Amino acid sequence: MKKLLIIPCLLAFTATFGQSVDEVLDTYFENIGGKENLAKVKGTKMTAKVNQGGLEIPLEMVQLADGKQYTKFSLQGNEFFQNVYDGETLWSINFQSMKAEKMDAEQTANYKLDINDFPDVFLNYKEKGYQIEMVGEETIDGAETFKLKVVKEPKMLDGKEVEDVSYYYFDKEAFVPLAIDSEIKSGQAAGMISRTTFSDYQEVDGIYFAFSIGQGVKGGESNPINIDEIVLNPKVDEKAFAFPAN
Fold first, then answer.
1. pTM of the model
2. Whole-angstrom Cα distance, residue 161 to residue 157?
3. φ and ψ at 117, to 5 degrees?
4. From CA 117, how far away is CA 128, in angstroms rounded?
5. Which of these, 4, 49, 47, lies nearest to 226 by C-alpha position?
6. Which of 33, 196, 218, 241 has the fewest C-beta atoms under 10 angstroms from its C-beta?
7. pLDDT tens readout for residues 146-202
8. Are 5 and 117 in contact (CB under 8 A)?
C-alpha cells in the first residue's frame, strides 16, 4: 500500500506567496487521486481500533452515498451500534438499557444535511452551497498550513438555527488536511473547540485516505483511531441499517 509522499519543496516555496481556495483544493484533489476517482466512490467500509483509557476497542464503520451508515464496535463481548441511518430513521443503542432508540427529528434533520459531505466535503462544494474562504496560515504540530473557513447550511439546536462553521488546516507541502476545528454547540463541552487530526495518508484503489485520526478538544487529550483497512464500494446487507424490531 502506497503512502502519500511530501510534494517537492518548490511547490511549498511557491505556496508561501499566496494561494486561492480553488488552487489549494485543486492541488488537494490532484494529490489524493483526482475528482473523477472520488466521484466513483459510492460507499466505504472501515475497520479500525480506538483507544479509550488504554483499552483498545475494535470498530467497523460503513457509509454509503445515499446517507445510510452505521458504526459498530465490540466491547466486553457485546456489539453496539451507534449513529445508524437506514434512509429514514437515525438511531443508536442505549448503553444503559441496551435497547435501540430513535434520535429526535432535529438530530435526524441535522444528519441529513451531512449526507452532502460524502465522499468528500470539498467535492462540488459550490453546487452544495458551501462558502469557503482563506483566513490565514497557522502551524499545526510543527507543519505550516493554510487555514480555510468552511460555512455550510445552518443546523438546528433547540429549535433555533445555528451556524455550521469549521476550520480546515491544509499542509502547505502535501496539500492535505492535517486538522479540523469546530465549536461544540451542546452538552457539557458547549463553547469549547473540538479538534480532529489526520495523518498517515495511504492509498486505497488510487485514492489516499488518512489512516490515523485523532479526536478530542483543542489543547486537550486526543483519542486516536487507527484504521486497519478501508474497502471502497463494499457490498452491505441492507438489514444492517434497519431499526431493530425489539
1. 0.90
2. 6
3. -80, -10
4. 9
5. 49
6. 218
7. 999 999 999 999 999 999 999 999 999 999 999 999 999 999 999 999 999 999 999
8. no
